[in-house]
Amino acid sequence: MLQTTLQAIADDTGPATARRFADLASRFLDTSAEGQVPVTSAAGPDALYQLVDEPVPETGLALDQILEQVERSVLDQSIRLSHPMYLGHQVSAPLPSAVWTEVLISALNNSVAVREMSPAGTALETRLIRWMCELAGLPVGAGGTLTSGGTEATFTALLAARAASRPGAWEEGIGEHPPVIVCGEHAHYAVTRAAGELGLGMNRVRLVPSRDFRMDADALVQLLDRLHQEQQDVMAVVATAGSTATGSFDDLERIGTLCGERGLWLHVDGAHGASAVFSESRRVMVHGLRHARSIAWDPHKMMLMPLSAGMLLVRDERDLARAFSQRAPYLFHEGDGERGWDQGPRSFACSRRFDALKVWVGLKRHGTRGIGALYDHLCDLTAELAVRLTRSGSFVVLHQPESNILCFRWTGGSGDDDELDRRNREVREGYNASGQGWITTTVLNGRQVLRVTVMNPRTTTAHLDRLVDGLQRTGEALRLSAAEAPR
User: Fold this and answer.
1) Which residue from 215, 245, 248 is spatially nearest to 401, judged by alpha carbons?
2) In DSSP terms, which residues pair with 407 in a beta bridge?
3) Would you place residue 328 in the very low, low, confident or very high pLDDT band (cuts 50, 70, 90)?
């Protein structure tokens, strides 16, 4: 059996096998991009499970059999993010050059936790992080680390903020009077999750009300004044650049200035919107990043990188070292240059993929101007969609889009708000089930709404027309069905 397995490894190493996997992936991307197949399978979870419900194999199978099942049971049944009618969650139609780089990352299999295990990877990630710090306007001495995404980045940032607020917390805990975290009411759930995980408790998060789905800066001033009077320590203020629900941007300039004057740690959750730095016309919305002490940023969102590629940037790289007050002499080596090259001491993960490579390749392939053009294209399409929805007469647009996210509500037919909530859910479910497109939903101001995120550069205005027409037809069919139902 050993000889058989070793021979299979040798056979699979050659270029012929590599081409077969690459051809399968390329065919999936091509058919998705052409848009002639459904966005996703209509099969339910039970049916999909049946496709792979089999005993664990005791002996290896022929590659032909495996690839056939991968195509039939996985690729053909998956959601196609590269389909121009995919307008759903904030997961990108990935840049092909970055997709193919994934093979190199896996072939290297270097762990970027320690320099000796990834000599070239450590150097490249360090340079990439410094590029991103420069783009964000952070000073010399800034640094950061790659993360799995914005949730880990925000958690790590708040861990660093805890170390600054409570230097002994790593060894002694946070004490009897934990500090509070301040954020907008539309902040990502990562903030309250981090508060719970850090031992502060979710009730130690203070929410600032919104104005037009952005943190109300006047209300922030009032809250900070009240907390000061109550002698409540503020561990961090979290602002959002590109909120999950509406893609809205807090006033980073004013909030950043306010935090600077008061000596408060400002963390900016820019997982979605920090990539506006690449835009010629929209980068003004993130000029205030330069005030931040920490920034969460997801290249796997608006830089169109494959999952996962998140990062955390900090104004002072030493803040990350202070956040993780541990030593592992069998792994991390002190005195390895002035800054210390090992990434492990400044991040959660020990086994870390060389994900920096795909981001570096994507930037090298398209440049900052190319990434910026894609960013603007996606945002421009979203603005066009708002116009088309308003013109249709069947929808109410709930905000002017600041990025590539738009929320709206189907208002066809009659009924009270509760009935329209149900109808909007049904419109989304019926439209997605048709396979002609795919959108999401959320709740704004207590009401069910439809939500679109334009994440695919292959999407055009013609696809937007198809979306509006498809949603209208779905809504009208539901209205007629309800009218004909016996009472």
Assistant:
1) 248
2) 451
3) very low
pLDDT of residue 346: 78
Pick the CATH number of 365-484 from 3.30.70.580, 3.40.50.300, 3.90.1150.170, 3.90.770.10: 3.90.1150.170
Q: Are 182 and 220 in contact, with CB atoms under 8 Å apart?
A: yes
- The answer to whether the CB of 91 falls within 8 A of the CB of 455 is yes
Collapsed DSSP state (helix, strand, coil) of residue 291 = helix
What one-character DSSP code corresponds to residue 464?
A: H
The matching CATH number, chosen from 3.40.50.300, 3.30.565.10, 3.40.640.10, 1.10.1760.20, for 110-354 is 3.40.640.10
Is residue 265 pLDDT above 80, yes or no?
A: yes
pLDDT for the residue 482? 64
Nearest Cα residue to 266 out of 225, 221, 236, 296: 236
3-state DSSP percent of the chain in helix, strand and coil, to 5 = 50, 15, 35
Other CB atoms within 10 Å distance of the CB of residue 298 = 30
pTM of the model: 0.94
